[in-house]
Design goal:
The protein has 361 residues and is mainly beta. It has three domains: 3-111, Roll (Pnp Oxidase, Chain A), CATH 2.30.110; 117-200, 3-Layer(bab) Sandwich (Phage tail protein beta-alpha-beta fold); 237-304, no CATH class. Helices cover 12% and strands 38% of the residues. The protein has four helices and 21 strands. Strands 1, 2, 3, 4, 5, 6, 7, 13, 14, 18, 19, 20 and 21 form a 13-stranded mixed beta sheet that branches. Strands 9-12-11 form a three-stranded mixed beta sheet. A three-stranded mixed beta sheet has the order 16-15-17. The chain is flat, with a radius of gyration of 22 Å.
């Protein structure tokens, strides 16, 4: 039986562990000793450092003391014992950040990108026509994330810098990496193995569901709750401004053109909400019309899907993650996961998601 089938059927015994891994993110130094009393992994795709973990372990005979120095790299895994064989899914690989207690040690971990949350020691210039993936690799190396290609998983969609870009001494390296990615409609994050990952933005309405919660008594979905966000700023049109090769501004707009969407905004502004433009997004790192168009569409999805939140509790599923698309039995539409917290021991997984709909048709 596969791990997925075991979770769906409920016929399994919970397994969870913490590992110490080497800087290459592949070599396992040791399994962390001590009994796991509690713990969880929280993932929020809207943060720069999106993964956070916490756990409490018994520290018998001070066995943990050599492994909990700040900066050590730990991997948290959750899985199941299926037919007597443990199977694990990595949920995060991060840095030991805070440690408290002695006999019962409380540990907090942050995603590995935290290493790059530091300042440039001197100005750095990235040349025109440099591939974005090479720029991220160079900045990551300066930020301490390493230079070996195996530490990265970079797909920039063949995007290149259209102008020379200089970051001054004292600027933040991690922020610079995210600035470059955002200007090309790319998402930058660390994956569960700790690799710095770069991906083109994907229209969530074009994604196939990663998981469907089935109805009935055997469903692992425990509850759902729909919340309208009437006081949150909602927009149905975005405006992006960059700088073209001739130094003149380039502008792109994207609007919700789906007549079935509650934020529908035709060119005459006659939709149910009228015309609600987002404040202009201005970036000196955007130099082509294609890049401006892509950024405008991404920003539109972030704003126009924010009119209602769906929170849910379920039995933990370690193989879904932020940006997964899921379906709930009481709704016909799919939902994009923004945040989730998965316990390492007994307990319920919590999810926060938004209804997915196409904004362009």
């Amino acid at each position: 039986m596969s791990l997925v089938d075991a979770y769906r059927s409920g016929n399994y015994t919970l397994a969870a562990r913490a590992l110490v891994v080497d800087d290459d993110l592949e070599t396992v130094v040791s399994e962390v000793p001590g009994r796991l009393l509690e713990g969880s992994v929280s993932i929020d795709r809207l943060r720069q450092i999106r993964r956070e973990g916490s756990l409490t372990l018994t520290n018998e005979d001070a066995a943990l003391d050599a492994l909990i120095a700040p900066g050590r790299i730990w991997r948290l895994e959750r899985g199941a014992i299926v037919a007597g064989v443990p199977q694990y899914v990595p949920m995060m690989t991060g840095l030991v950040d805070e440690v408290g207690g002695k006999r019962q040690v409380r540990i907090r971990l942050w995603g590995r990108q935290m290493i790059a949350d530091q300042q440039f020691s001197s100005a750095v210039t990235l040349p025109e026509r440099m591939r974005v993936r090479d720029a991220i690799l160079q900045l990551g190396g300066l930020g301490g994330l390493g230079t070996a290609p195996e530490l990265y998983d970079l797909d920039d969609g063949f995007a290149t810098l259209q102008a020379t870009r200089t970051f001054d001494e004292g600027e933040n390296i991690l922020a610079a990496m995210h600035t470059i990615a955002a200007a090309h409609a790319l998402e930058l994050y660390d994956d569960p193995y700790g690799r710095t990952t770069l991906r083109p933005f994907v229209d969530p309405s074009a994604q196939a569901p990663d998981w469907t919660f089935e109805p009935g008594e055997a469903s692992i979905l425990l509850s759902t709750d729909r919340t309208l966000k009437a006081r949150r700023q909602i927009f149905n049109r975005t405006i992006v401004v960059g700088i073209g090769p001739d130094r003149y501004p380039i502008e792109a707009q994207a609007r919700d053109l789906n007549p079935n969407s509650p934020t529908y905004n035709p060119p005459d502004g006659s939709g149910p909400m009228g015309d609600r433009p987002r404040p202009r997004f201005v970036s000196t790192d955007i130099h082509t019309q294609a890049a401006a168009n892509a950024v405008a569409l991404r920003l539109l999805y972030e704003g126009a899907l924010a009119d209602e939140d769906y929170s849910a509790a379920a039995m933990p599923l370690p193989f879904i993650t932020e940006r997964s698309v899921v379906r709930f039995p009481e709704y016909d539409d799919a939902f994009l996961l923004d945040k989730l917290t998965i316990p390492l021991r007994a307990g319920n997984m919590t999810m926060q998601s938004r209804r997915v709909r196409s904004l362009i048709a």
